[in-house]
Amino acid sequence: MKASAVDGYPKGNKMKILIEGTDASQVNALRRAIMADVPKMAISKVMFTLGVNQDNNRGEIFESVNALPDEVIAHRLAMIPIPTQPDEGMAFPDECENCMDLAEEDKGCPNCQVLYTLNVQGPSADSDEPYRVVRAGDLTNVSDPLFDISEEMKSIPITYLAQGQFLEFIAFATLGRGRDHAKWAAASAVTFQPCYEAELKKPKKASVLFDLSLTTSDGRPIDAKLFSNKKCTDISTVLDIEKALHQVGHGTGRDADFDEAILLNKVDGSFVFSFETDGSLAPEAVFNIAIEELKSRFSDLGEDFGRAFA
Ligand SMILES: [Zn+2]
Fold it and tell me: Structural domain of residue 138, as residue ranges?
């Protein structure tokens, strides 16, 4: 198996990878590993402060009532991408050396959890603002600054606070895997498809497509210039051609004139693999960790077989 990033990727959190010399079952194992096995951080426990607060300066009363139930706020917190630092050696709560033998309620130490606090009040009674939006950026990280909520995630809204309301809690983020809960899934839209080469079979009839003035995703016109020696092998371009072919395919009324003027030929053993991370981890890191997870699983399997046959 050989993997290489498709030209132009990663694009932000999006990744496209050409995987060669393999088969669909292996690539699917990789897909499953990315969805279910790559560990990442997510908020998994929240302790809300309940009650009434008095603002010392003004004597104003704020209450811990909210438009949203605590469960919904906890769920929204779980969905906020928490920077995951695979090299920092964070432990899974169940495997943490310090906490392994402790009772469930005592578990949690700097080695296996990251703490965030939030304390926000709604607008005061004489304010013109009817409400205040609480955002991910209002979370204060009280652990290592490495785990500060990233700039691009700070605008994620959590809830509204009206006048006289406050929201206060401590949130604990832990390492987990997507197979246990979706909040720990490192990437979404994990897909793959066979890798194709486009072949310009009938240049004259292909004008049915070329005359539609379609463009590739990077703005080049879809025409004969994309082909050299009647072939196009650039992966991104072939994907654009594949999309454009829907305009002249079955049911468009153009298919008879087009007459399969451009063919897509499968490249044996090659696949285009794509996914998008939620921003907790870089796409390259997700891919590398998935490979490591698979490797370790298969060596474990080897040992199991050894034992079974002994
Ligand atoms: Zn611990």
Answer: 41-184
